[in-house]
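Quick one:
INPUT:
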Protein backbone atom coordinates (compact mmCIF):
# COMPACT_ATOMS: atom_id res chain seq x y z
CA UNK A 1 0.00 0.00 0.00
CA UNK A 2 1.30 3.43 -0.89
CA UNK A 3 0.31 6.45 1.08
CA UNK A 4 -0.03 9.56 -1.01
CA UNK A 5 0.08 12.98 0.54
CA UNK A 6 -3.34 14.58 0.50
CA UNK A 7 -4.65 17.96 1.63
CA UNK A 8 -5.60 17.78 5.31
CA UNK A 9 -8.01 20.70 5.33
CA UNK A 10 -11.37 20.78 3.59
CA UNK A 11 -14.62 22.68 3.98
CA UNK A 12 -14.35 23.99 7.55
CA UNK A 13 -16.70 22.86 10.30
CA UNK A 14 -19.89 24.81 10.95
CA UNK A 15 -18.49 26.02 14.26
CA UNK A 16 -16.78 25.14 17.50
CA UNK A 17 -18.35 24.76 20.92
CA UNK A 18 -16.87 25.74 24.28
CA UNK A 19 -18.70 23.99 27.10
CA UNK A 20 -18.04 25.49 30.50
CA UNK A 21 -19.30 25.48 34.06
CA UNK A 22 -17.89 24.87 37.51
CA UNK A 23 -16.41 21.47 38.43
CA UNK A 24 -19.26 18.98 38.74
CA UNK A 25 -21.52 20.76 36.25
CA UNK A 26 -21.23 17.87 33.80
CA UNK A 27 -18.93 19.40 31.19
CA UNK A 28 -16.82 16.38 30.26
CA UNK A 29 -19.72 13.92 30.25
CA UNK A 30 -21.94 16.18 28.16
CA UNK A 31 -19.09 17.18 25.82
CA UNK A 32 -18.28 13.53 25.08
CA UNK A 33 -21.95 12.70 24.48
CA UNK A 34 -22.42 15.77 22.28
CA UNK A 35 -19.36 14.98 20.18
CA UNK A 36 -20.65 11.42 19.73
CA UNK A 37 -23.89 12.78 18.25
CA UNK A 38 -22.20 14.90 15.60
CA UNK A 39 -21.34 13.60 12.14
CA UNK A 40 -17.69 14.77 12.31
CA UNK A 41 -16.40 15.98 15.65
CA UNK A 42 -13.56 15.98 18.16
CA UNK A 43 -13.76 16.22 21.95
CA UNK A 44 -10.99 18.49 23.24
CA UNK A 45 -10.79 17.88 26.98
CA UNK A 46 -8.70 20.78 28.22
CA UNK A 47 -7.76 19.07 31.51
CA UNK A 48 -6.10 16.34 29.42
CA UNK A 49 -3.85 18.98 27.87
CA UNK A 50 -2.79 20.10 31.35
CA UNK A 51 -1.98 16.47 32.17
CA UNK A 52 0.45 16.39 29.24
CA UNK A 53 2.82 18.57 31.27
CA UNK A 54 5.21 15.99 32.70
CA UNK A 55 7.18 18.24 35.02
CA UNK A 56 6.35 21.67 36.41
CA UNK A 57 2.62 21.53 35.90
CA UNK A 58 0.47 23.39 38.40
CA UNK A 59 -3.29 23.09 38.71
CA UNK A 60 -5.47 26.02 39.76
CA UNK A 61 -6.15 26.38 43.47
CA UNK A 62 -8.53 28.55 45.51
CA UNK A 63 -5.50 30.25 47.10
CA UNK A 64 -4.30 31.77 43.83
CA UNK A 65 -1.02 31.00 42.14
CA UNK A 66 0.56 33.09 39.38
CA UNK A 67 2.18 30.09 37.69
CA UNK A 68 -1.05 28.07 37.78
CA UNK A 69 -2.86 31.07 36.27
CA UNK A 70 -0.27 31.26 33.47
CA UNK A 71 -0.81 27.58 32.75
CA UNK A 72 -4.58 28.12 32.53
CA UNK A 73 -3.93 30.32 29.51
CA UNK A 74 -1.28 27.95 28.16
CA UNK A 75 -3.69 25.03 28.07
CA UNK A 76 -6.41 27.28 26.62
CA UNK A 77 -4.01 28.31 23.85
CA UNK A 78 -3.14 24.67 23.15
CA UNK A 79 -6.84 23.79 23.13
CA UNK A 80 -7.52 26.55 20.61
CA UNK A 81 -4.66 25.42 18.36
CA UNK A 82 -5.95 21.86 18.40
CA UNK A 83 -9.58 22.90 17.94
CA UNK A 84 -8.66 25.20 15.07
CA UNK A 85 -6.83 22.37 13.33
CA UNK A 86 -9.81 20.04 13.69
CA UNK A 87 -12.23 22.76 12.54
CA UNK A 88 -10.22 23.53 9.40
CA UNK A 89 -10.27 19.79 8.62
CA UNK A 90 -14.08 19.71 8.89
CA UNK A 91 -14.50 18.39 12.44
CA UNK A 92 -16.65 20.29 14.94
CA UNK A 93 -14.44 20.72 18.03
CA UNK A 94 -16.23 20.39 21.37
CA UNK A 95 -14.02 21.86 24.10
CA UNK A 96 -14.71 21.52 27.80
CA UNK A 97 -12.97 23.75 30.31
CA UNK A 98 -13.69 25.60 33.54
CA UNK A 99 -14.01 29.18 32.30
CA UNK A 100 -15.43 31.55 34.90
CA UNK A 101 -13.57 34.81 34.22
CA UNK A 102 -14.24 37.23 31.37
CA UNK A 103 -10.51 37.49 30.60
CA UNK A 104 -10.38 33.71 30.11
CA UNK A 105 -13.41 33.69 27.79
CA UNK A 106 -12.07 36.70 25.87
CA UNK A 107 -8.82 34.76 25.36
CA UNK A 108 -10.73 31.84 23.83
CA UNK A 109 -12.66 34.16 21.53
CA UNK A 110 -9.52 35.97 20.39
CA UNK A 111 -7.49 32.80 19.87
CA UNK A 112 -9.99 30.37 18.33
CA UNK A 113 -10.99 32.22 15.17
CA UNK A 114 -11.05 29.45 12.53
CA UNK A 115 -14.84 29.05 12.87
CA UNK A 116 -17.65 30.66 14.90
CA UNK A 117 -17.39 29.84 18.60
CA UNK A 118 -20.54 28.87 20.50
CA UNK A 119 -20.30 29.24 24.27
CA UNK A 120 -22.55 27.08 26.45
CA UNK A 121 -22.58 27.32 30.24
CA UNK A 122 -23.84 24.35 32.26
CA UNK A 123 -25.30 25.76 35.47
CA UNK A 124 -26.90 23.12 37.69
CA UNK A 125 -26.13 25.18 40.80
CA UNK A 126 -23.33 24.77 43.35
CA UNK A 127 -25.15 22.24 45.56
CA UNK A 128 -25.79 19.83 42.67
CA UNK A 129 -22.23 20.30 41.37
CA UNK A 130 -20.81 19.47 44.82
CA UNK A 131 -22.96 16.33 45.07
CA UNK A 132 -21.77 15.21 41.65
CA UNK A 133 -18.16 15.87 42.61
CA UNK A 134 -18.51 13.66 45.67
CA UNK A 135 -20.03 10.85 43.61
CA UNK A 136 -17.02 10.69 41.27
CA UNK A 137 -14.56 7.82 41.37
CA UNK A 138 -11.94 10.35 42.48
CA UNK A 139 -13.97 12.73 44.63
CA UNK A 140 -12.64 16.28 44.70
CA UNK A 141 -11.40 17.43 48.09
CA UNK A 142 -11.68 21.13 47.22
CA UNK A 143 -15.13 22.69 47.26
CA UNK A 144 -15.25 24.79 44.07
CA UNK A 145 -18.81 25.97 44.72
CA UNK A 146 -17.74 29.63 45.19
CA UNK A 147 -16.79 29.65 41.48
CA UNK A 148 -20.50 29.60 40.69
CA UNK A 149 -20.91 33.14 42.01
CA UNK A 150 -17.90 34.38 40.01
CA UNK A 151 -19.20 32.66 36.88
CA UNK A 152 -22.61 34.29 37.17
CA UNK A 153 -21.13 37.71 37.98
CA UNK A 154 -18.61 37.77 35.11
CA UNK A 155 -20.27 35.68 32.39
CA UNK A 156 -23.94 35.93 33.27
CA UNK A 157 -24.76 37.64 29.98
CA UNK A 158 -22.47 35.47 27.83
CA UNK A 159 -23.41 32.48 25.71
CA UNK A 160 -26.25 30.04 26.29
CA UNK A 161 -26.96 29.06 29.90
CA UNK A 162 -28.50 25.68 30.66
CA UNK A 163 -29.73 24.59 34.08
CA UNK A 164 -29.02 20.88 33.73
CA UNK A 165 -29.65 19.96 37.38
CA UNK A 166 -32.70 17.87 36.51
CA UNK A 167 -31.77 17.00 32.93
CA UNK A 168 -30.33 13.74 31.68
CA UNK A 169 -27.16 13.92 29.61
CA UNK A 170 -29.23 13.24 26.48
CA UNK A 171 -31.66 16.06 27.31
CA UNK A 172 -28.78 18.46 27.84
CA UNK A 173 -27.24 17.46 24.50
CA UNK A 174 -30.57 18.06 22.75
CA UNK A 175 -30.85 21.49 24.36
CA UNK A 176 -27.33 22.39 23.19
CA UNK A 177 -27.96 21.19 19.63
CA UNK A 178 -31.13 23.26 19.45
CA UNK A 179 -29.62 26.39 21.02
CA UNK A 180 -26.46 26.45 18.88
CA UNK A 181 -27.87 25.38 15.54
CA UNK A 182 -25.44 22.45 15.42
CA UNK A 183 -28.37 20.07 15.12
CA UNK A 184 -27.80 20.12 11.37
CA UNK A 185 -24.44 18.42 12.01
CA UNK A 186 -25.95 15.37 13.74
CA UNK A 187 -25.12 11.91 12.37
CA UNK A 188 -27.91 9.90 10.75
CA UNK A 189 -29.69 7.65 13.26
CA UNK A 190 -28.44 4.44 11.67
CA UNK A 191 -24.82 5.60 12.02
CA UNK A 192 -25.37 6.45 15.69
CA UNK A 193 -26.89 3.02 16.33
CA UNK A 194 -24.02 1.31 14.58
CA UNK A 195 -21.50 3.13 16.74
CA UNK A 196 -23.30 2.10 19.93
CA UNK A 197 -23.07 -1.63 19.13
Amino acid sequence: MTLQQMPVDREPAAGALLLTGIPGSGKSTVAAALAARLRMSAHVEVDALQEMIVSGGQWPSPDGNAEADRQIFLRARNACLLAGSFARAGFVPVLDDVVVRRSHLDFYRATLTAVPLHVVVLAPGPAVAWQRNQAREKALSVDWSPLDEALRAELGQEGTWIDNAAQSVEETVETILSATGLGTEVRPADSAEGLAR
